[in-house]
Amino acid sequence: MSNKKSETLKQREAAQRELIRLKKMQAGELETEKKEETKNPETVSEKLSNFLYYNKYKLLAAAVAVIAASYFIYSAVTAVHYDAKAVIFCFEYFSEENRQDVADYLEEYYDDIDGNGQTELGIIDCSFVSGLDTAQYANTMMTKIQSVLAGEEDAMLFLLDEASLQHLNSISQNIELFAEDEIVELSNQFYDALGDETKTTENGKRYLCLRSIEGTTLEGEAEENYNAAKKALQKIRDAQ
Questions:
Q1: Average pLDDT, the chain
Q2: How far apart are CA 123 and CA 82, in angstroms?
Q3: Cross-sheet strand order for the sheet of 121-125
Q4: Among 47, 56, 112, 149, which lies 20 to 30 A Cα-Cα from 119?
Q5: Burial class for 186, CB neighbours closer than 10 Å (0-12, 13-18, 19+)
Q6: pTM greater than 0.70
Q7: Do residues 162 and 203 lie in contact, with contact meaning Cβ atoms separated by under 8 Å?
């Protein structure tokens, strides 16, 4: 009999504790107690883990930003800064080696414009390979040379052959792209420097031409580049 009373008493006490707990939950007291029981990180390891957990997205964004900034800085530092550029527009193929030979030749006559102690000349290759004269290819290459003429203020000297010179004159719309006294027919001195025994091609002789900027949007903006190219062309004319 005493066992039954004891069991009943335990059940009542358990029910009473549960009732008290539910009342505390309703009043918000139990949640407060749990918050008070939450421990703050104490060790360095716990603090670090806690920091990384709550700031992982911010840290990831910062890391991406640092990597991107580093890449752009590296690209700016390692990029080649040319004193000037020259355009090859011939109706024949120019290999990378050929283009570099042309750059090396012209660098001998250009001044160090940016004052860094060396002359670097960039080559813009717009050569039109006649064997690939599909309509799409022709349109792409002609669009490229027109873009160079319109927007490349560093490119004043053009290496042309008779066919390409005639073509440019035909699309110039009564604008003189190259003044007659700024067109130099290349002699053996040029071909010897390039190790090229072919003095003429099926598209005629080759020329170095200084583009005219008078009356164009480049007048004033590209004066320094124009004068440097004019000086280099005169040196080449004198050396031939």
A1: 76
A2: 10
A3: 121-125, 84-89, 155-161, 206-211, 178-185
A4: 149
A5: buried
A6: no
A7: yes
Determine the Cα–Cα distance for residues 118 and 62; give it in Å rounded to an integer.
39
CA dihedral angle for residue 72, residue 73, residue 74, residue 78, rounded to 10 degrees: 110
Q: What is the pLDDT of residues 152-192, one digit of tens each?
A: 788 889 999 888 888 888 877 667 788 888 998 888 878 87
Specify the residue for token string 């440097």. Answer: 228
Query: For the purposes of burial, counting CB atoms within 10 Å of the CB of 38, is it exposed (0-12), middle (13-18) or buried (19 or more)?
Result: exposed
C-alpha span between 138 and 129 (Å, rounded): 9
**Cα first-last separation, the chain:** 131
Could you give the CA distance from residue 194 to residue 102 in angstroms, rounded to a whole number?
7
Beta bridge partners of 20: none
Report domain extents, the chain.
1-38, 39-79, 84-239
pLDDT at residue 99 tops 70: yes
Burial of residue 110 (number of CB atoms within 10 Å: 0-12, 13-18, 19+): buried
Nearest to 83 by CA among 106, 55, 123, 111: 111
Structure tokens at 171: 């699309």
Residue 226: count of CB within 10 angstroms of its CB: 21
DSSP H or E run through 121: strand 121-125
**What angle separates helix 29-37 from helix 2-27, to the nearest 10 degrees?**
90
CA 126-110-102 angle, to 5 degrees, is 35
CATH 2.30.30 fits domain 84-239: no
